[in-house]
Request: fold
Amino acid sequence: MNQQRPGHIAIIMDGNGRWARQRNRPRSFGHLEGLKTAKRIIAYLSELHIPYVTLYVFSTENWKRPKQEINYLMGLVTSYIHKEFPFYDAHDLRITFTGNMDELSEEVRTALQEAEAYTRDHDGTTVNLAINYGGRDELVRAVNRYLGSAGYRSTVPVTADDISSCLDHPEIPDPDLVIRSAGDSRLSNFLIWESAYAELYFSDTLWPDWDRSHIDEALAAFERRTRKFGGVEA
Reply:
């Protein structure tokens, strides 16, 4: 049995649209409530002294959604990042981000960079925001970084450590626990390299309905698991 708490929790925050539809409200209402839930959950994980949390905010596949919804989501991200500086201070949060920044607007990039710079010296939970993120896209970018650093001249085979060192955040440890809300049981292109040995926890509860009790249930499930990392149990 695993007696330790996870050092890194990654969360796929799914179900905002369905939550809103159940209440005959627009999807934007669900996204706003989902953001409020994320804030509550981050505060709780900070209280539990979880060192790293990665939130799947916007995937590379989410560009397929209606333009109005995309614009709303990007505006929501930008406005909340700007207004939450007191929240970062109160919980000593360090904010960083992962994903392909080149395809985001200058306004979104600037907001993310300002939050990262403002919280750089905070010592509490690191909150890594996955925005315009896709696991396959990250691997492609990592390989290109490696090839660029090798100058296309290296004849030594590329290793797993080479790829890991060129990911968006090689300094952040791999997630120990990946949580997904709202009933689906798949990673959906989220941290597919980093999650190779993560414990997976799937919940039927829609993300806006999550509270501390749902985190407690996920942590309890994690603690009941035996992690062998391909070895055998002693």
